[in-house]
Amino acid sequence: MDVINSILPTVQHLGVFGYWLILLIALSESLAFIGSVIPGAVLVTLAGFLSAHGYLDIGDLIWFAAIGAILGDSLSYWFGTKGTRFFKEENRLLKRAHLERGEGFFKKHGGKSVLLGRFVGPLRPIIPFIAGLSQMNKWQFLFWNILSGFLWATAHLLLGYFFGGTLNVIEAWSTRAGIFIIAIIVLVIFIKIVMKYSRPFFSFLKSLALSVRDAIVRNPDIQKIVQRYPRSFAFVKRRLDVDAFFGLPFTLLLIAFIYVLSLFVGTVQDIITAESLVLADTRVANLLYAFRDAELIKVFLWITLLAKWQVIISFGLITSILLWLWGKRKYIVPFWITISGSYLFYTLSKIIIHRPRPYIAYYLETGYSFPSGHSTIALAFYGFLAYILFNECKKQGKTKANILFGSLIIILGVGLSRIYLGVHYLSDVWGGYLLGALWLIIGISMVEWLKRKKPEKTVSISRNVKSVFVILPIIGLIFYSVFALEYHPPLNRTISASATFITRNIQDIFKEENLPTFTETLTGDNQEPISLVIVAKDDETFVRNIESAGWILADRPNVSSMLSLIKAALLNQTYKRAPMTPSFWNANVHDFGFEKPTRAQSVRERHHARFWKTNVKTPEGESVYLGTVSLDTGIKWLVTHKIAPDIDTERELLFSDLEKAGLISASRKIQSVEPVLGENFTGDPFFTDGKVYILFLK
After folding, report:
1. Is the pLDDT of residue 373 over 50?
2. H or E element in which residue 367 lies
3. Could you give the CA distance from residue 666 to residue 55 in angstroms, rounded to a whole number?
4. Residue 532 has pLDDT above 60, yes or no
């Protein structure tokens, strides 16, 4: 880290030349003649790293790097139109083997290879050459060249920018993580060696295992033990029989079932007894509530309906008909047993656990919260469909991977939709997945047993029947679309805080009402202590007074505001109402965020104040707000800010602004906690004297 820090001032003196240097690097890295030995991707990533420290502008870098990459590929394309005479096997840089690899890649992917090849190591400078050699249409090449150039430049620069923002974190953890990193590197190298020499390696392992087995079996002492306990060893032998269902297949399925069952029981126990899990659930729910957006709600409503019982029944009937016509009838009964068992058990679990729904639910749902029925059915139903397709798919590798990936996306999407819409907690979804997995294992076990008991005959499908395999899925999609368009659940209009408390001594608010004195991370660890207690007539008066002191109310985090924030951060522009990273107090995300620009007039640097509205009121009916203040000094990880450690100065700044504006009717400063030296959730250090202002606003 010291070496990196020592070269940063040198980079600063490059000025505008630094951008042109990146253009030349990106251009050289894309040339067919020298690109193979130019570490352009590494150097461009390093430029992004430097931009995170303010020495180069990330927006300008993207333009220069992209233009350089586009020009480099264009020159390589032109060279390609001149023929293959540059490539010779004895040539150290332009080997004939590289050309053949590029030709194969281009033949496989066509025009898209210009885009894909940009991100594939040694093929990067070869693919444009092959495009020219193959007389690819120049306008088609130009389209893919420009698109891939900007994607390549943006991806590498943002990668460097991200790690540039985490320099201090890397420095803090480098010593402790060194051994772990070395172990990972060694493991990766080992896996690569195994992959390269897999066939002889595994043949050797098999031979070694058989030799060890034979040696053990022939051992006289072992033979005596086997003769003494014949039933026990016969039982073990049957459990490991690969050909019989009640051998190794059943053994593995049983182990999986017991393991998943233990996870489910442990989750239930944690929900009943572990307060930390319940609070973590609440924080996650409140966090997603803070990011709730009207457009995303529509998207997640469609996703969540993929596991609604009406849709599942219709999809299930269509699946059963297709399986019957296909001659794969062994799946049908286990399929419905899996669905029915999942439905029955999650219903019973809801009644037994009796967990209330989150109060921040977007719409009203009947029944209790744990486990999530949608998550249970999603894993059972779509998991079983994936099992059928995986079993019956004749193609290997890519197709089967796509089947598993697609089903996983649907299952995870349904679970995320339940949390985002606020109708379930995170542990509800996890419990639903586990319960669905239990019944999926049962269903798969039944199919595997039926397959070995009575193998099915292959059924030929006529042309008329084949048309049904197209028509029925289309009917299912139409039903799902119409159902989703007509689905309008009753909205939850009762989102409110818990009961209100009256305090007669605002100075003892934390002791009287047993309120936390610290903000929290998502996992419940303490962060900055509360530094401001403000009493105001109502929300409108509170916001008006803070804004009158020169602090601006931040926008709510949604798709539009977050995109605007990212744009302003990348281009180092101002965004006076930029949304804030959520912070927790008493398991709740802050209700109000205020910011004040610094002289830099940049979204990367600003004064921040976060406030939570409590359920405490004064005898006069005024509301009580608790807050923290900090100074953002830069963007880190592209999602949050780095704060200055002296948070007391920021507390004094907000107090001074309110006082100068004549908005305070009474104030007092008291010791709330002992002086603190700590870190926030991103590892930024802070220190404070532990004092808090109590302010009454006019």
Report:
1. yes
2. none
3. 46
4. yes
